[in-house]
Amino acid sequence: MYSLRSRRAKILLATSSFALIAYLIRRYRRYILLKKRRTLTNSREQTTTNVTPLTRKTLNKRFFHQIRILIRILIPRIRSDSFLLLIVHLTTLISRTFLSIYIAHLDGAIVKSLVQRNPRNFLRAISIFVSVAIPASFINSLIRFAESKLSLAFRSKLTRHAYDAYFRNQTYYRVSTLDSRLLTPDQNLTDDIETFTSTLTHLFSHLTKPFFDIAVISWSLVSMVRQRKNARGLKEVPGMILIVIIITFMALRRLSPRFGKLVSEEARRRGILRFAHTRVIANAEEIAFFDGHEVEKNWILKLYDQLREQTNSIIKKKLWFVMLEQFLMKYFWHACGMVTIAIPFLTYDGPAETDDPIGDPLGISARTEAFTVSKNLLTSGADALERIISSYKEIAELAGHTDRVYTMLHVFDDCAHSNYQRTPIIPSDNPSECSSALAKRKISVDHRAKGEIIESDEDIIAENVPIITPNGDIIVESLSLKITPAMHVLITGPNGCGKSSFFRIVRGLWPIYSGRLYRPDPSNFFLIPQRPYMCPGTLRDQIIYPHTVDNAFVDDSQLMEILNNVELQYIVQREGGLNAERDWKDILSGGEKQRLGLARIFYHQPRYALLDECTSAVSIDVEGKIYERAKQLGISLLTITHRPSLWAYHTHLLQFDGNGRWTFEVLNTEKLLTLKDEKERLESQLAGIPEIQKRLNELTQLIGEDIITTTENEENDD
């Protein structure tokens, strides 16, 4: 019976072990598969964003190079306000270190008075402790105050520097249109800078004070040890402490997760989620018309789940790392510290040290005081070492934030100097499936534009200038023409043929990859798009944009005349005057916004007005008056429009066919109108042919094919 039970138990144990092994193998294979998928996903994301990933070693030359450049921005000179705040903060940290040592000695004096049962000394020590607590509390508060002020000063310096770079040479346009390295520049300019500066100042406090604490506390402990010359084993104590520190540091460094890369990835996903919310707000009306809220909600939830997954991964990794960190630097160090303190007391074989031979001949109170002081000092030193070693994790996080801020400034500088890197959008997942024609009409945009832009006096001259989109699509391979101020050019063609792209090339928004472009100074151009930009501010600000009230060169009567030119004089009384502040984007109708945009060309009176479908919501009679008044002021009109009513106000025609070909010729308005009438007449005639064919098919079915065939044969016999 016993052997049978034993056999069953063995069989059950073997079966359970086999099942457990199979389960563990299955889980391990699933873990490997998920790890490969995650690695593939991260590699694709890094390829898409074109951001260099952080290496395993956070403290490398790249990090020190980046932090050195950023510190030069934060502290440009010794007499700067940020350097003064840094000195104040450093002084408070040093003062707090000496106060900690003094308070440790006060604790020892209090314990000694208790052991001696001396109320007078006890009350005296307590009184001193309370009096010292007031400046100590102030120093503690001053440390936080100085840290906050220093962080704000650093943030202000870096923000101003970043804004100067962002708004220089149209970088704000180039970084989002011509370059693809920064997905969310708004987050880089706000959250990333704030996080970087706060982390840097916090890490400075957590590293500077511990180093001072260790230096001063070590000196104090050495002074105390020298008083016990008869103790044995003191030479081994520093070596033992050093070994414990090295073991702890190596263990934490070896087992520390890659917090820098994890934090950088979390910040990137947070920025993408914010951008998705911004996109919904910007396109709320279109989404509401199509009831597309479910699609947008699912997309945002997907992005949030990706952010939650990354945050959850960081939390899980911190769980085990913090557990190891607490065990080594709290409990293990505490035990080693007690051993270190005990060695001088246990190995001392000299005479008893006492200041009360009658009441305390064995010197118990003196030993208790020394033990308390040593314990407090070692505790403070251990805390300092703990902050230094645990700061490796914070340094890794700082490396992630440093990389994002440095990359932002580096991309800004590249875009300001026309160095772009953009990942082209490929229509097919397999590039080999793309047609050869498409492949020939795409170029790599990851190089510097080699075309020349030469400033001219008045004329616009293009010599073999290609029109290439930021994605590398070649719209026009070579464009050569000359436009003088006496010309008024009408630009036509199908959608996507290069009409608006021509404006971007002429204005300098897009780079020129070859050829030469002669053009006047950019201040001689003024673009009026189909949806004019309404800036925040008053009605006056809308007219004189991008000027401000301080540099405006017209008075109110001239502004009223400008509004009269575009038939908008009534809007002043309706909205409460030129200084009325409104949300003009929502208050004005589409036609009013277009006419208000056209008012800007009467204010600035540029040499060339680039008009891109800017009168689509304006009536034909008002449109004609505006164009006629603009021509009277000597403004050359370059117009993109589909309205035949505007042909009469132009002298030349630039026509794109959508296949890379173009023509530039003198505009014959009467001939074009005649051809247009003939085209419409032929289209109306051809529109009836499908109806005639349909009716013929119906008659064929009703009469029958045989009858028709017999009738045709009889006619042939006759």
From TrEMBL:
GO terms for cellular component: peroxisomal membrane. It comes from Adineta steineri. One of its GO terms (biological process) is fatty acid beta-oxidation. Residues 460-684 form the ABC transporter domain. Belongs to the ABC transporter superfamily. ABCD family. Peroxisomal fatty acyl CoA transporter (TC 3.A.1.203) subfamily. The keyword ATP-binding applies. The lineage of its organism: Eukaryota, Metazoa, Spiralia, Gnathifera, Rotifera. This is ATP-binding cassette sub-family D member 2. Pfam families: ABC_membrane_2 (PF06472), ABC_tran (PF00005). The chain crosses the membrane at residues 83-105, 125-146, 233-252.
